[in-house]
Design goal:
The structure is a homotetramer of 152-residue chains. Chain A is α+β, with helices and mostly antiparallel strands and 152 residues long. The first copy, chain A, has a single domain, classed as Hotdog Thioesterase (Thiol Ester Dehydrase, Chain A). Chain A has helices at 39-54, 59-64, 136-144; strands spanning 17-23, 67-78, 87-97, 101-110, 113-126, 131-132. In chain A, strands 1, 2, 3, 4, 5 and 6 form a six-stranded antiparallel beta sheet that branches. In chain A, a hairpin with a 2-residue loop joins strand 4 and strand 5. The first copy, chain A, is globular and about 45 Å long. Chain A starts with 16 loop residues before the first strand and ends in an 8-residue tail after the last helix. Chains in contact: A-B, A-C, A-D, B-C, B-D, C-D. Strand 2 of chain A pairs antiparallel with strand 2 (67-78) of chain B.
């Protein structure tokens, strides 16, 4: 289990560009006065939405076609607590890219401090939940943007 | 990364008792009409709260003393989508227990189907975020309940 | 504005039966260590879902047909704070019933204490958002259950 | 009830400046593929936080002193649905100001369309929930900014 939650990876860390900033709300915090652990997954959603928007592939266009990026797995490590009204930087990048699967990596920073990091693993599905191949144009856009992870 | 998200573990799987049931709300679902991925972490919270309540260690007593079970890591695998109004069984158990750290494992089922599973890693902290040892009485209660994981 | 938020009403208060109980999570609370104000609207959702389930009209059957109870308005008054792990009783009842509109009233109690109360106003819509009439069978079920508000 | 949810008001509408924009997430939407009704109250929180920050009174400074703006009531009217990835403008202004109470009004727009509007009623409380007077400097700042509602 500890190994399963480890951050070491056989792959080189992908480049994680700042794709958005986020101001912490009361709504995000819990009685410990820190951001509730599940709410980092909202920040991850913002991260991948803005990463793909920046690549010219906003999810909205896919959703309009009934295509979704289903989440098959997530992990998050909490390094330091974030508090009410903190301004957080959301970093995101592609960590792995397969034929029908993709892993997106994230880091949440407050200034120079790492608050949290993690990853989501996705597969593309249609409206009925059936798996789809990643569009080749999307793969080409990632390559053009230098966002493809190095081959292992 | 794929390895980091893997479900295989060097430790034997802990016993995961059903500790609560949950009825899926509109509030829990997203435009794919399935439970939003972050909301499973709410179900995990219900799982560990009810696991500890069942052991005679409700979190409330600790919170009243300014002691919290901080989350240092989480992972979740999504096996099948859950839908509006589904009745889900929440299973939880202790997967690892150290001096100041603990891993809780979860499974979310709908009837015979596995919907999701995962784990949270915790350390005990005081109101100021300082690490605390796990109370020995708590460890004894786990042992008495047969909930301690087998030594590796 | 104050008048618009007033709880006095030209109509008699409807009977508000306890339809569910709810245990407050960390996820529900904010840094004031009380339930975050938006989360009462989740409790209202539980309230109307269980009210209708109890009448033999679970929303799920409607959702499967592409019919939804859209919310056109909500109000909530916060009487006393609710805290982590509180067990709350959710009360709900029909406050007004028109041809295509309906108002559901709610109260959230902790033992003898009133924590919050409010109401949601709804209209029935189809999958495309077009208004629909309330089914006559539903109206009959409400009347049979003694849940129709007295005529003004 | 219908009257209680009415938007007409004996007071002139306050000026509602755009104080923030918000991009709708998957996390915000429900199976009707519209923003879930409770999530507008998050947008209201953003609205009042940014309104007060713009006045030079960020909540954070108060929270650090153990002073909070408790919510005693809320109302919201849903005019049109908002969808995934919509960019919403959040408007906010002071609707009423008493000695220890304040009403903040909001509107949520998408371009020229009104999506929702509403109000929250607040009182200032300390860490223990005891009511406090609104600071006079705060009142002066509102007056200087032209944000005080006209006397009735």
């Amino acid at each position: 289990m500890r190994r399963a939650l480890a951050t070491t990876s056989p792959h080189a860390e992908p480049p994680l560009a700042v794709v958005a900033t986020y101001r912490v709300l009361f709504a995000d915090c819990d009685p410990m006065r820190v951001v509730y652990y599940a709410n980092y997954l909202r920040l991850f959603e913002i991260g991948r939405a803005e990463l793909f928007r920046g690549l010219g592939y906003p999810f909205r266009a896919y959703v309009a076609q009934g295509v979704y990026l289903a989440v098959v797995g997530v992990r998050c490590h909490y390094r330091r607590p974030a508090h009410y009204d903190d301004e957080l930087a959301i970093r995101a990048g592609i960590a792995e890219l397969g034929r029908a699967r993709m892993t997106v990596a994230y880091a949440i920073d407050r200034g120079d401090e790492r608050i949290a990091d993690g990853a989501t693993e996705h597969c593309v599905v249609d409206d009925a939940g059936r798996p789809q191949r990643l569009p080749t144009a999307f793969r080409a856009a990632l390559r053009a943007a230098g966002l493809l992870p190095a081959a292992p």
